[in-house]
Amino acid sequence: MTCGAPASGGAPMAYASAPSGVEEPPRHGDPFAVRRGREALRKGRTAGLRHGRSRLAKAIFFVLRAMALLMAVLAGAATAAPAPGERPLTFGILPIGGPSESLEAWRPMLDDMERSLHRSVRPLSVSTYEGLAQALAEDRIDLAFVSGKLALDAVARDRMRVLAQLTRGDGSRGYYSVLLVEKNSPIRSVDDIFRQPGHWRYARGEALSVSGYVVPETQLFAGRGLDSDTFFASVAVDNHQNNALAVANREADVATNNTADLERFAQRFPEQYARLRVLWKSNLIPHAVVIVRTDLPPELRQRIAAFFTGYAKGRNGAAELAKLKLIHDISGFAPAGNDTLLPFADIAWTLERRRALGAQWVNSAALDARLKKLDTDHEALVKRLNASSP
């Protein structure tokens, strides 16, 4: 409270206005001053008490509400957190562009997987097919999204099994390998390539890439008794994106690619895409698959399979579908078994047979022995793939 200085003549001090709910103190000489003063003090104490109680009630309300929110957050965290002693599941990601790009695309869906499984999921995004194959061979991956060749190798070693296969929004059953040339290239057909051995610059995918190497090698080169690595003037090995850029920038004359990655390339590099032309397209290649370790508990494998095959199909379907679109034009995952890999087993067998027939042997018996072994191994693999499917 503040007061003014005494005025001349002994005038009384002027009091500052009192707090709300409390009347001004009485002045001397008023016969009812004492009574009014007592009444004012009583009212002030009552009002102040009511005011204090109101503030206390509000404070208690906010504290309780904060505690309720905190308990809800902690309960949610406990639900999503892994059980004590459970290690994180490692999810291997097929290279799409670069490792960081792949990781960014998959992360929203993997977050949903963690909540669904109540277990941490740690992504492993690599820059090469070989890096992913090595991680699979070393048992550093529990489940993965991979192409057919990688899946076939992992399943053939009895470490993995197929549980789901990618589906696309357009309803397609697969994709195609393609050969790309620059729009104004003098190469007008595949025959133009083969008429000039040792002349063109070639950009292809890794040896484990189905569309980047295995399929074009099988359908174009091995059948002619050729090896692409020795046929061209130069060979560069890189991912689909960089190989397409190499052709668009005239750093390569011919490059492998596939229709799915080419769609993604068109969105990211429209100017460079406009400078490309598709020279050749393969037979249909089945879509990529999800594989899981065979030594995981059956109940966990079932929950993983249920998550994938039910994703983007339930009450949160629209939001989940939007997350799949971040990866590419994926509409969901269909249940699948190891027999999904039969086409890839046939491709690998065909490639090895054509290579054997195009090679030089000391005698016909050696060639026959090689062909017989290839046939026997293929038959055994086909039998295993069929037997291990649900």
Strands, total number: 11
Strand content: 15-25%
The CATH topology of the largest domain turns out to be D-Maltodextrin-Binding Protein, domain 2
Assign the structural class, choosing from mainly alpha, mainly beta, alpha/beta, alpha+beta, or little secondary structure.
alpha/beta
The CA-CA distance between the termini, in Å, is: 86 Å
Measured on Cα atoms, how large is the radius of gyration? 37 Å
Largest sheet geometry: 6 strands, mixed
Number of domains: 2
Widest beta sheet: strand line-up: 2-1-3-10-4-11
Which residues form runs of ≥5 with pLDDT under 50? Answer: 1-38, 43-53, 68-80
CATH architecture assignment of the largest domain: 3-Layer(aba) Sandwich
Tally of helical segments: 14
CATH class descriptor name of the largest domain? Alpha Beta
Task: Provide a descriptive summary of the structure in words.
There is one protein chain. By secondary structure, the chain is of the alpha/beta class. The chain has 2 domains: 89-171 and 288-387, D-Maltodextrin-Binding Protein, domain 2; 174-286, D-Maltodextrin-Binding Protein, domain 2 (3-Layer(aba) Sandwich), CATH 3.40.190.10. Helix content is 50%, strand content 17%. It contains 14 helices and 11 strands. Helix 2 (99-117) runs antiparallel to helix 12 (317-327) and helix 13 (342-358) packs antiparallel against helix 14 (364-387). Residues 1-38, 43-53 and 68-80 have low confidence and may be disordered.
Keyword list:
390 residues; alpha/beta; D-Maltodextrin-Binding Protein, domain 2; 2 domains; six-stranded mixed sheet; five-stranded mixed sheet; globular; disordered N terminus
